[in-house]
Amino acid sequence: MKKEPKELTPEMRSRLTIGQRIRHERQLRYMTQAQLSELLGISVSYLGAMERGDRPVSSSMILRFHECLGLSYDYLLEGTTFSDMALAQYIRESESNGPKRNLEVILGTCSQQEMENCYDLIHTYLLTSRRRKRNLSKSGEPNSP
Predict the structure, then answer these.
(1) Domains and CATH numbers, the chain
(2) Are 25 and 71 in contact (CB under 8 A)?
(3) Residue 131: exposed, middle, or buried by beta-carbon count in 10 A (0-12, 13-18, 19+)?
(4) pLDDT of 50-105, one tens digit each?
(5) Residue 109 CB: number of other CB atoms within 10 A?
(6) Is 79 buried (19+), middle (13-18) or exposed (0-12) by CB count in 10 A?
(7) Percentage with pLDDT > 70 across the chain
(8) Using CA atoms, how far apart are residues 56 and 27, in angstroms rounded to an integer?
(9) What span, in angstroms and rounded, lies between the C-alpha atoms of 23 and 11?
């Protein structure tokens, strides 16, 4: 019977090495080293060496972990996370930065897949909204904001 991986407290996460955090995240996903190494396009022995701390984790590998597993850079490097609550608090406190800057901050915390999903959502919203505006203006009804 497999042992259930446990969630770590922020204090515990910050004490782990980057390799230990990678191993923990792999185990939380019930992935073997072989499965993760295939996903990352590296050898099992290279992944094992990174997890043990025998090999350094390069910036290009950090990018791969971010894109493949959706792990944030701050979590990988420091064991900290920019939680949704912290993100919301940041945006509330920095309204003077404007929506464009706040979007940059939000998107900066996203994995590649989340970024693609956000793009699809925004693109669909804009197409629909602009189409609706054109249809309303053609029908003579006042435009709504």
Answers:
(1) 10-78 (1.10.260.40), 84-139 (no CATH)
(2) yes
(3) exposed
(4) 999 999 999 889 989 988 888 878 788 887 765 555 666 666 666 667 777 777 77
(5) 17
(6) buried
(7) 79
(8) 20
(9) 17
